[in-house]
Amino acid sequence: MKNVLLVTSCTGALAIALAPGAALAQDTAAAENPAALPVDADQPAQADENLITVTGSRIRRSNATAAIPLQIFNRETIEESGSVDLAEIVAEIPGVDSDLSPETTNTSVQNSGISTINLRRLGSNRTLTLIDGRRAISNAGNGERVSLNTIPAGFVDSIEVTTGGASAIYGSDAIAGVVNILLKDDFDGFNANLRYAKPERSGEQEFLADLTWGKNFAEGRGNIMVGFSYEHEDPIYADASRPDSIRAVSWGVPSDIGNFNDESLLPGCDDSGRYCFTPSLSSYLPGGRFESDDAWNIGGVWYNDQSLLPDDGRTSGEGFETYPDGYNYRPGQTLSPEYEMWSGALKARYELTPSITFDAGAMYTVIKTSARSASESAIYGDTYAVLDADGNAQYDANGVIIEAELPQIASNHPFIPAEVEETRSGSVSWYRRFNELGWDEKINDRQTLRTNFGLSGDAWGDWQWNVSGTYGTYNQHQRDLNEIDLQHLANALQVTTIDGQVVCASAAARAEGCVPINIFGEGSITEPMADYIRYNADLRQEREQVTGLASANGTLLDLPSGPLKAAAGVEYRREYQRTWGQGGDKILQTTSTGVPDIDARFDVIEAFAELDIPVLETVSLQLAGRIADYSTVGTVYSYNVGGSFFPSPDVRFRAQYSRSQRAPTLTEFFSPPRGDYDSLTDPCGGLLPDGSGITPPPGSNASAATIAANCLAEPGIQAYFADPDNAGQAFSSGSSVYGPNAGNTNLKEETADTFTAGIILTPRFVPGLSLIVDYYQINVKDAIGSVSTQLAAELCYTADNYPNNRFCDTITRNPANGAVREVINQSENLDSYKTSGIDTTLSYDWEIGGLPGDFDFGLIYTHYLEDSYTFQAIDGPQTEDTLGIIGNPKDEFRAKIGWEHEGLRLTWTTLFKSGGVDDKDVVPGDPAYFSIGSQSYHNFYIGYTLRRRPTVRLYAGVNNVFDDLGPFLPSGLDSGNSRNIVSSLNDLDGREFYLGARLAF
Asked: Which residues of the chain have a pLDDT value below 70?
């Protein structure tokens, strides 16, 4: 009977008791015989053949003395996961979460299509990803994020994860921990993996081909390995096969949608003021809406509040209502993008002499993704920058960009139809969605090159040395298609008649090819009209990384209890980033999300040392320290102090304290405001001219009178009330605002203190049983982050010192109608993040007399005790407790049971996360209270080896056996969005079947 893999993480025993054929703790080389590992204190724990180097240390040591627990996914665990996305595989571990994914980055400008993870919910910027123990270049233009989907699963031999402070070992970015992707090595032969997967629902058809060839030569002194991988996934669109994805609802109160709040129309809703799933349609129609709410076009049919009333009981003067007249823009949007990946890899090793070895490697990956959102919209009064003849933005005497507005349509405009003319009292106001331009598409091409080289060898005694370096480049080309050129739209809306022909009024615009535009009615915009106002943005980013390392490790001296081992070295790293494109200031005239030009770099030189001290035969002490000098934040210091006590083969204790730092990324430090859009519930929404109508934010103790007074002081809101078209209407603002993120050269490094303590039980009287319990606590001080768009708006308008506070300084409103135009999210050293919890792992291998085969069971359970962040608010530090909110469950587990016999392998895996609330300040009984129950997904795998040498193994499986798409989280919720079922808790595929074959020669 084989034993289970049982290894643990740095901040706790996140042991992976998942697959047979692996080792207790770190020694993957001894995977088939964990009993041979020196876990008995009476055994010679320091025997050279048992010394290994694992993630979390640079010293070769016995796994029994390591103070830093480690968890490992071996090759078999990866193959049985049912996925080929490494981020999805690693994110199955409790305490490890998906950070960015192709599903959650659909509309992202700089991160669309990438796949990253974060440890302990501290973010992917605080998670260091290594490849073969070496740093890897980032795949994002706005952070230090290695996209794991750039590393084909077929190249990977194992994955090692430590969670917790590791900056003393690896430097910056290792505050939350380290993910080390170990590629195949010294491979001789040919492997192929062919896989096909398809869910029952539409989209996401997937094909994968992995090919690997390796050859030993020169009597084993050398090895060369070549790999190739191809993967393609179809997109998932919002459609009827996932009905929740196209439901046009939002979480709110019925009064938010006008007069249609009859409970018979909105089941579960009434006039009590409680929240419910209310209709959520867009007032921007493909056929247009005119004269405020007086005339509109739906599907080519005209309505107005005069002679063309809808047949639903409305009387004269009752015009457009967002419900039921609005537009559902959700069907056809991308839930998960189309994805295509090509990758090639080369690894080589050669023993130059018996004591010196050269190694080199290269990996080149091309990833293409394509996603689409609803067509762009515009409204009269939308502003855009005025450019000079050279295409540069013009500024007034105060340094503010001079802006122009989209005009209303002149009263004598020849395209005004009779249906609108009947309602017109002057020039015509308008709102419109420009479907004729096509979907708002984001198409990404990403190319990543990673190279490495090194020399290593033996010195005196057991000392070993290493000199190595890496060079990496990353290039991204994003095309943002079918945006609106607002200047061209303004030109096209202003027309005149020359020789009986309707032409653009501006002679300069005519000279540049202006085409008059007809926005009245669905399909009224011809292709030439659409071509004139269409803008296709073009964004390019490149990154470059250079690293160098010189280190040595070995025995300093022999102590009575064993050898005192040490490691020391120096390291250099340079990071460079450049972002450009999108037409310079031209982007300020369009609806495209602009990204500013960035050209920035930093470098750092570091020195480190590590000691492993055998205090007694049963007690080991580990020390590590690092000093780093950054060109941005200066000198920082990191250190670890830890140890282990193993009084018997049945029990082992361990503990560690670490101080870690993270320097700001290039983007956090240098970036001007860069484009992003955020959801916003305007605190001023519902305001009436007399100051009534304000509802304080849910869970807030703010005064409605204070909010009303602050909102009425806004010139734009006063302009809204002064507009005759808005007479008698409450103030309203859009739900999506421009929320650019900006860097800050005043940032300093983050500092994290991590403490862990645990016990490992492997009772000899129950063979195959292991139990591990660990406590962890991480406290990040001076954490780099930004106050959210929603929170900034609430803190501005609920404050007694409005507008003289830093939150109001970030908000810009449209002076014509008061709508929030922009909320800048600037990077800051916030107060702290805190997280703590208990990890428990149970694993067991057994046989049942009389039954064939071996059974194995693994359970990984994490219970969070704390998860919060603190920032400096107006009146001092304000703490937000995020534990138990949707997406941050209190409890998680992964359970797997398996059976194996004569080449047949069956497994059943259950992934569980407890439920949560949308806002912890909103308690049960509050009208806005919203919660979800726990989520669990179940996967089944079967594999069978038909023959060996050459090996043919067939496998198949069902992911998400019970076809659960996850919680319904629409807009209006802090945890929701307009795609309804796109979050880290959802499984968009639903029930998915896959099959494949692995061949080995």
From this structure: 1-54, 61-69, 106-107, 109-110, 112-113, 255-268, 270-273, 398-400, 674-677, 699, 734-735, 872-876
133: left (phi over 0), alpha (psi -120 to 50) or beta: left
Q: Helix (H, G, I), strand (E, B), or coil: what is residue 78?
A: helix
**520 within 8 A of 416, measured Cβ to Cβ:** yes
CA distance 45 to 134: 28
Q: CA–CA separation, 341 vs 101, rounded Å?
A: 15
Distance CA 383, CA 404 (A): 5
DSSP-assigned letters across all residues of 745-792: TT---EEEEEEEEEEEE--TTSTTEEEEEEEEEEEEES-EE---HHHH
Alpha carbons 44 and 42: distance in angstroms, whole number: 7
Collect all residues with Cβ–Cβ distance below 8 Å to 338 and sequence separation of at least 6: 233, 234, 235, 368, 369, 370, 371
Residue 266: the pLDDT is 60
User: Please, are residues 375 and 439 in contact by the beta-carbon 8 Å criterion?
Assistant: yes
At 677, which helix (H) or strand (E)? Answer: strand 677-679
Is there a contact between 40 and 51 (Cβ–Cβ < 8 Å)?
Answer: no
Q: Spell out the residues 6+ positions from residue 432 whose beta carbon is closer than 8 angstroms to its own.
A: 284, 285, 286, 287, 288, 289, 377, 378, 379, 519
Instruction: List the structure tokens of 59.
Output: 């010293």
> Token pair 């996140």 is at which residue?
14
pLDDT at residue number 7? 33
Q: How far apart are CA 332 and CA 342, in angstroms?
A: 27
Gyration radius of the chain over CA positions: 31
CA 969 to CA 245: how far, in whole Å?
10
Question: What token pair was written down for 802?
Answer: 């409005």
Evaluate whether 78 touches 18 at the Cβ level (below 8 Å): no
Cα 743 to chain centroid distance, Å, stands at: 19
**DSSP one-letter string for 917-961:** ES-TTS-TTSTT--EE--EEEEEEEEEEEEETTTEEEEEEEEEST
Element containing residue 475 per DSSP (H, E): strand 464-484
β 741-742/825-826 pair status: parallel
Residue pLDDT, tens place only, 236-274: 999 999 999 999 988 887 765 554 445 555 666 766 667
What pLDDT shows up at residue 198? 96
3-state SS assignment for residue 687:
coil
Q: What three-state secondary structure class fits 798?
A: coil
Cα torsion 436, 437, 438, 444 to 10°: value is 180
CA distance 135 to 664: 17
Backbone angles phi, psi at 791, to 5 degrees: -70, -40
